[in-house]
Design a protein that fits this description.
The chain is 43% helix and 20% strand. It has helices at 15-27, 47-57, 73-79, 92-108, 128-136, 147-157; strands spanning 3-8, 30-36, 64-69, 84-89, 113-118. Strand 2 (30-36), helix 2 (47-57) and strand 3 form a beta-alpha-beta unit. The structure holds 4'-phosphopantetheine.
């Protein structure tokens, strides 16, 4: 049984994340979406809100579980009995950070591999940061995030 972790901040989950979740869930037997609980990053949404939004938008995917985590990703992966970490790569600008992270994680535990999926072209420009910025200035985010996330963002901005 192949088990993978797809970790991230998901503040909030975008259509780009959801695309990676759907594609990864077809490759592995079980996909755990690990939601980073780190207040030092000052997220817009609490970890509970981020977990709930992810649960809602992945409820039709049978082999996906949403689990919050704090601390080291590699420790969380071991705790969950995962074989793989999956990350999405949007553009060359992501590469350096992702390479460093995967190599560091591999040094910490060489039994856990990192696998990269390239983002679908239609989401290659998309980030949670730009979605939040659009929302802050009252822009329409409906083409970038699932409907319930757009609603939650609108509520937050009130
Ligand atoms: O969506 P993000 O913010 O790009 O996700 C980053 C994340 C959560 C994958 C990364 O910050 C992480 O793994 N944090 C946990 C701490 C850790 O393990 N750090 C060592 C890896 S270099």
């Amino acid at each position: 049984m192949l088990k993978a972790i797809y970790p991230g901040s998901f503040d909030p989950v975008t259509n780009g994340h959801l695309d990676i979740i759907r594609r990864s869930a077809k490759i592995v037997d079980q996909l755990i979406v690990g939601v980073l609980n780190n207040n030092a990053k000052s997220p817009l949404f609490s970890v509970e809100e981020r977990v709930n939004m992810l649960k809602e938008v992945t409820k039709d995917i049978e082999n996906v579980k949403i689990v919050p985590f704090a601390g080291l990703l590699i420790e969380f992966a071991k705790e969950q009995g995962a074989d793989l970490v999956i990350r999405g790569l949007r553009a060359i600008t992501d590469f350096e950070y992702e390479l460093q992270m995967s190599q560091t994680n591999h040094k910490l535990d060489s039994s856990i591999e990192t696998m990269f999926l390239t983002t679908s072209i239609e989401y290659s420009y998309l980030s949670s940061t730009s979605v939040k910025e659009i929302a802050v200035f009252g822009g329409d985010v409906s083409q970038f995030v699932p409907k319930i996330v757009a609603v939650e963002l609108e509520q937050k901005m009130k």
